Amino acid sequence: QVQLVESGGGLVQPGGSLRLSCVASGFTLDDGAIGWFRQAPGKEREGISCISSRDGDTWYADSVKGRVTISRDNAENTVYLYMNNLKPEDTAVYYCATDLAFRSCSMVITVQDHLEIWGQGTLVTVSS
Q1: Alpha-carbon distance 105 to 19, whole Å?
Q2: Which of 29, 21, 35 is nearest to 80 (CA)?
Q3: What is the DSSP string of the chain?
Q4: Which of 12, 32, 57, 70 suits a disulfide with 16, CB 3.0-4.6 Å?
Q5: What is the pLDDT of residues 76-112, one digit of tens each?
Q6: 33 contacts 98 by C-beta, under 8 angstroms
Q7: What is the C-alpha separation between 16 and 1, in angstroms, rounded?
Q8: What count of other Cβ atoms lies within 10 Å of the Cβ of residue 65?
Q9: Could you count the other beta carbons within 10 Å of the beta carbon of residue 30?
């Protein structure tokens, strides 16, 4: 079964850190670029980071650049999203997604509405 499963969300104080995990099964990280997306209440979904499948190129949205690092562990078939200096406006449900037809981040981020594989999401709440 092809799927993605996120974990690592939770309640964190402003300025805190979290590590989100996205575990892939039924395919390998060489098969498709993995994107991280988030959706805050009442807002549109936003692509925030991505790592390409073959060469590991990374991409970050301006809203998180400098505070977020994406990485992958091919042995664990897992992509991580390290988030630092979290702000209340980072509160959202975070999703990882991919499409086995897309190995580049430009495609995953651009056509996010049509990606074939999405995780169930993990909630991040930044509040004091």
Answers
A1: 21
A2: 21
A3: --EEEEE--EEE-TT--EEEEEEEESS-TTSS-EEEEEE-TTS--EEEEEE-SSS--EEE-TTTTTTEEEEEETTTTEEEEEE-S--GGG-EEEEEEE-TT--SHHHHHHTGGG-SEE---EEEEE--
A4: 12
A5: 999 999 999 999 999 999 999 999 989 999 989 988 8
A6: yes
A7: 35
A8: 11
A9: 10
118: phi then psi, degrees, rounded to nearest 5: -130, 145
Which residues touch 86 (CB under 8 Å, ≥6 apart)? 12, 14, 15, 16, 17, 18, 67, 124, 126
How far is Cα 92 from Cα 114, in angstroms, rounded to an integer? 21
The mean predicted confidence, pLDDT, of the chain is 95
For residue 68, the Cα-to-chain-centroid distance in whole angstroms is 10
Compute the Cα dihedral for 121, 102, 27, 77 and give only its sign.
negative
Q: In this structure, what token pair is assigned to residue 101?
A: 């037809």
For residue 49, which amino acid is it?
Answer: S
